[in-house]
Amino acid sequence: AEAEVRGWDSNAELRYMVLPERPAGSESLDEEALVALVTRDSMIGVTRALNP
Question: Does pTM surpass 0.70?
Fold first, then answer.
């Protein structure tokens, strides 16, 4: 499997990646349902992903 990773530099010396923590109770959800739990704010690390 291939993966492409793109980074957005906030400056020339800092790179970051935020992977939201999987919410409790979401273990049985499919990809489409999980996508609905992820918000802009959870992707930039200021909130957690929504609960199912």
Answer: no
